[in-house]
Amino acid sequence: MLEINNLSAKVDKKTILNGLSLKIKPGEVHAIMGPNGSGKSTLANVLSGKKGYEISGKVNYDDKDLFELAIEERAHRGLFLAFQYPLEIPGVNTSNFLKTSLNAIRKSNGKKQLDALEFLKIVKQKASELKIDEKILHRQLNVGFSGGEKKKNEILQMSLIEPKMAILDETDSGLDIDALKIVAKGVNALRNKKRSFLIITHYQRLLDYIKPDFVHVLMKGKIAKSGCMELAEELEKAGYEKI
Amino acid sequence: MIEELNKNFEIFRKTYIPKLEDEKKRIEAFKDFEKSGFPNKKLEDWKFSDFSSIISNKIENIKVSLERNKNFKFENFIKDFDHIKIFFFNGFFVEKGEKFDEKKGFNYVTPYNGFKRNFSKEGGFLILPNSNNALESLNNAFFTDGLSIATKKNFEFKKPIVIYNIFEGSKKNNFFNNKIHFVISENSKLDIMIYNINIGEEPIFFNLKNTFYLKKNSIFKLYNLSDFKKNDVHYNFGRYFLEENSIFENFNNCYSGGFSKSDLVCSLNKEYSSCFINGVMLSQDQNHHEIKTLINHNEKNTKSYQKIKSVLNHSSKGVFQGKIKVSPEAQKTDGYQLSKALLLDKNSEFDSKPELEIYADDVKCSHGSTSGNLDEEAIFYLMSRGLDKYEAKKLLIKGFLTDAIETITNNEIKKYFLNKLENNINEHR
Ligand SMILES: Nc1ncnc2c1ncn2[C@@H]1O[C@H](COP(=O)(O)OP(=O)(O)OP(=O)(O)O)[C@@H](O)[C@H]1O
Ligand SMILES: [Mg+2]
A98 and A74 in one domain? Predict the structure, then answer.
């Protein structure tokens, strides 16, 4: 699904990612942990196509050279990033935005556009599954949303879009226990043999619910250690110092 | 250009049939205009818009024609909401619009149907005001037709009135001077939209003066919209006088035309009167739009609110000059003013001059002005959700401007303007 080979990324001559390699097969769930500033969000941004990085290395996504694809083409081909800090966009109605996004992706995949009613039915159902208050659908996108509401809104988008490869950047940070379970439920509901996940987190708690296949530690811009759930438990106890 | 106008004025005086009670006023007004000429940027009020060079760039030969088109046909009126229609064609009132009667809640007069019926206490437009505004003097000199309406007391209009100013700009006829004069009587409620459209091939200069008196407890909403051509020039001089507990809501859409300036003076003359003057600019193709406001807080407990959102692209120019003036009597004034602009290319320009002039001590006044570019992070966020760059920008622009349109309290008209915005953004590449 996703094969990262010797990926480096620089901003203003500062190296942030430094020869990172990682392979994620269809159906696998990988977790990435790592200290603040180690480059986790940078990895997520580079994969989704954010501009402003000087990049070297190779990334294959779904049998394509990822760097040949524009930002929106990556989304059209099933790559999804739940942002660590979802943006507030004044004046843009949340429901309207969700429909525009979903239809843009459907269109690129030759699927029929959903009309307002069809969309509303789907979004209401997904929102209730995720215990999201429907009222936020009528509000301006993320404007004045609580931290938790913003994160849940990202998961709502993920469940609407049903991506092939979802990257979650600290979606669990700042969530209460119930919300954490909802996010885990959202991920587990989508989990299947074809769909892959890359979950960036600081806490073992989310991983207890999701049970990833692999856990990696990102330090100084590369994968310093890989393992399974036990690695997350070790980190929880001993921190990053011993690695 | 002035010489040309002089010739036009002589012909106009000979051919224009209804005479004012005081025709000398016209001649004086024209002399006033001749003395100062078209305003240029040396004048503080025209600092950012050099009208004299704008007009000579946009219009080759200025020409007044008093020909009235008897076969006027216009089917392209608004279908989105029910409204009372009033038509002007090439500056003349057209009888084909709505029939007026007392039951509809207002009485009206235009120079052609009753010059002598000077029923409006405020003098209507039949008495030409002295002016030190050159374009108003010009309007006084060439004033051809207009509409003077007084609403009935305690009358609430169920539908808005739309005044369609339709022009067929040609080389022979491109200069139009009208006046609109309303008295919104005590306890009455009225919504009006002034819709200017040039269906002709050639550019026009439309010089409009409008005056509105809001009596005690009245609520008046005034919306402006124009479908102008690339070189059309429009000057809209509005004066609004508010009495006790009256509410004035004004919304200006600036989408089209070579140059347009709304020059709005609102006087809050009695206690508890309030005005809301908002607007959007979406300027492209070297358009130049200006909104200039002066709010006079002349009495205590008065309130003003202004929100102007502007998007400039393709070497266009936007200007907002807004002044809140609080007289010594006007304690407990609440004044708010905000102008925000997005510049989409480096050849576009936005000039803003917010001013507060306060002579009372117990007041709450604030103003703010920002201009900047679209947020790259927001564009990335939207694109990562499958929108291409054009769609992402469009959504952000729409969101930015919608914020101002949301201030409109007539829901039907708000919806109509939101659709207009959508169409205008779609054309905005
Ligand atoms: N645009 C940028 N300009 C300058 N420095 C940057 C930029 N983006 C990231 N960095 C730096 O790169 C480093 C890695 O940042 P990144 O956001 O990827 O960390 P992270 O692992 O996600 O941290 P956290 O756990 O706190 O979210 C940090 O030191 C950060 O300051
Ligand atoms: Mg991060």
Answer: no
